[in-house]
Design goal:
Strand content: 5-15%
Number of helices: 8
Helix content: 55-70%
Number of domains: 2
CATH architecture of the largest domain: 2-Layer Sandwich
Shape: elongated
Radius of gyration: 37 Å
Oligomer: single chain
Number of strands: 5
Strand order of the largest sheet: 1-2-5-3-4
Structural class: alpha+beta
């Protein structure tokens, strides 16, 4: 009996030791996964913020182009006015010069002093006339260049507007089944705004897009994948409610960025969209759609903007 007790004791000790070690290893494994998740989220947040800053530095807005176009139009109008004024002055000087020539021909046989004065006046008017001709030539050439540039700019802007209207129609058609169900498509300032409320995309407190939201995003991605000169900004927005303790994200900034990057991944997975054309950004709670409606503030906005760099080159010196 004593021998049997001695044999059982090591088994009991081993079992106790094994039971104590398993939770410790599991704790270490969970802790490692948590730290890795935190590092991944921090990296994603930093990357998104850098991308947004770069986009802001490089993006050429329609408002800027319109302002420069208006300046170009004003300059062209001013040049036209100057050209007309110089033309009038030129005509007057030319008329005076002709009068002096007539007098000269009539007084060739006159006194030397009168001839010298007349010749001096003729030379002075000839120089003025030449200067006016030179100024008119330069001004007319400059005006012609500006008018051509203005016509080119207007034609390109009209083309961009038509292309964006066509794109809006295509996007609206692709998302027909979702409009009025937390999704709107609008065109303003030369850009298209696709706004999706969180009820269409995310379960409460989640950063994972649900099935219905994936379908809407996939339809959108396929509708725009062939528009190679369109830049895509995906903005995440939240309401003013604070993040509860123990959540997988730190605050509303973090939540808005993570939701925006989730949408970006689905767009890239659903169609052949160049990643260089797309940017994820988190706006947190600071750009509400309706200060009195939290549901509308919890949203994703996908902004489709034409690449206007070539147009910007046309007006950058004005």
């Amino acid at each position: 009996m004593i021998a049997r007790s001695r044999a059982i004791f090591p088994l009991i000790a081993s079992a106790a030791f094994f039971t104590a070690c398993v939770p410790a290893r599991k704790y270490e494994e969970l802790n490692s996964r948590y730290k890795a998740s935190q590092e991944s989220e921090s990296a994603a947040l930093a990357k998104a913020q850098q991308a947004e800053a770069a986009m802001k530095d490089q993006q050429v807005t329609v408002e800027d182009l319109s302002r420069r176009k208006e300046m170009l139009e004003r300059d062209t109008l001013t040049l036209g006015t100057s050209l007309r004024r110089l033309t009038t002055q030129y005509d007057k000087i030319n008329s005076l010069n002709n009068e002096l020539l007539d007098k000269y021909n009539a007084l060739v046989a006159g006194g030397n002093s009168e001839n010298r004065k007349l010749l001096s006046d003729l030379e002075a008017n000839r120089l003025k006339l030449q200067n006016k001709e030179d100024s008119l030539s330069v001004l007319a050439s400059s005006l012609k260049d500006r008018e051509a540039k203005l016509a080119t700019l207007q034609a390109e802007l009209d083309k961009k507007d038509a292309a964006m209207k066509s794109l809006k129609d295509r996007v609206s058609q692709a998302l027909t089944g979702f409009e009025g169900k937390g999704l709107t498509v609008t065109q303003k300032n030369g850009q298209i705004y696709v706004s999706l409320e969180n009820q269409l995309l995310f379960p409460s407190g989640s950063t994972v897009v649900d099935k219905k939201g994936r379908e809407a995003l996939s339809n959108l991605a396929r509708a725009i994948e062939n528009d190679k000169d369109i830049n895509i900004m995906v903005e995440g927005h939240t309401d003013t409610d604070k993040v509860l303790g123990g959540a997988a994200y730190k605050d509303n900034w973090d939540l808005s960025v993570l939701r925006a990057t989730s949408v970006v991944r689905i767009l890239l997975e659903s169609a052949k969209i160049d990643p260089l054309r797309i940017t994820a950004a988190g706006k947190g709670e600071f750009q509400p759609a309706d200060p009195n409606d939290k549901a509308k503030n919890r949203r994703i906005e996908i902004i489709l903007a034409p690449d206007l760099k070539q147009l910007y080159e046309l007006v950058k010196d004005h």
